[in-house]
Amino acid sequence: MVETIVNDVLQISEIHNSEVKVHREPLYVSPICESAIDTVKHRVNENVRILFKPGDKDQMVFTDRHRLMQILINLLLNAAKFTQSGTITIGYKANRNNTSVDIFVEDTGIGIAAKHAEHIFDRFVKLDPNTQGVGLGLAISRSLARLMSGELKLDTTYTGGARFVVTLPVE
User: Fold this and answer.
1) Model's pTM, two decimal places?
2) Which residue range forms the structural domain that includes residue 105?
3) Structure confidence at residue 45 (pLDDT)
4) At what angle do helices 2-16 and 137-147 cross, to 10 degrees?
5) CATH no. for residue 106?
6) Residues 126-135: what's their mean pLDDT?
7) Rounded to whole angstroms, how far apart are CA atoms 67 and 49?
8) Closest CA to 158 of 105, 91, 118
9) Which residue has the higher pLDDT, 131 or 112?
10) Nearest Cα to 96, choosing from 25, 167, 24, 158?
């Protein structure tokens, strides 16, 4: 736990100081999603199922494999932390104009009020002070998405828990 906190603090500092390098390459989304699931499945409550909903065809994005994995693992671990029963779903779909891909992580957990949709991405923000962590995971994840010419948002239209969407460019 302490090692994770130290690593998170160091990483947010590196991102802020523009020391994090992004190595973009063309990557298929399915294997990255599947690898992220494999990494976190042992940390999910036994009453929770992890589902994978790939798009109609495997999409390719032009991004950094390591950084995308980090974002997806952060989102899946957050979902696991706040979902005691039900499902956590990861999936993706191409946007209408096929210039970007939306990768989503949604859960049937406690959800996040729309009024907190931007605030949760601030550093050291924890809506529930009793949960594990220091409130850097979402700040790091959004910063990494932006470094990769993408975006990370909370989908405030989703009401079954929480749904985060990472949008990344195809090229």
Assistant:
1) 0.90
2) 2-169
3) 94
4) 40
5) 3.30.565.10
6) 77
7) 25
8) 105
9) 112
10) 167
Picking from 118, 104, 109, 122, the residue whose alpha carbon sits closest to that of residue 164 is: 104
The tokens describing 18, both together, are 């523009």
- How many domains does the structure of the chain reveal? 1
CA distance 154 to 4: 24
Return the structure tokens found at 46.
């036994």
Element (H, E) at 62: strand 60-63
pLDDT level of residue 15 (50, 70, 90 thresholds): low
Mean pLDDT to the nearest integer, 21-35: 94
pLDDT value, residue 123: 84
Bridge-based pairing of strands 100-107 and 151-154 is unpaired
Q: Are 26 and 60 in contact (CB under 8 A)?
A: yes
- For 104-134, give one letter per residue: b (16+ CB within 10 A) or e: bbbbbbebbeeeeeeebbeeeeeeeeeeebe
| 80/78 Cα distance (integer angstroms) | 5
Q: Name the token pair of 87.
A: 């499902």
The pLDDT confidence band at residue 16, using thresholds 50, 70 and 90, is low
> How far apart are the C-alpha atoms of 23 and 25, rounded to whole Å?
7
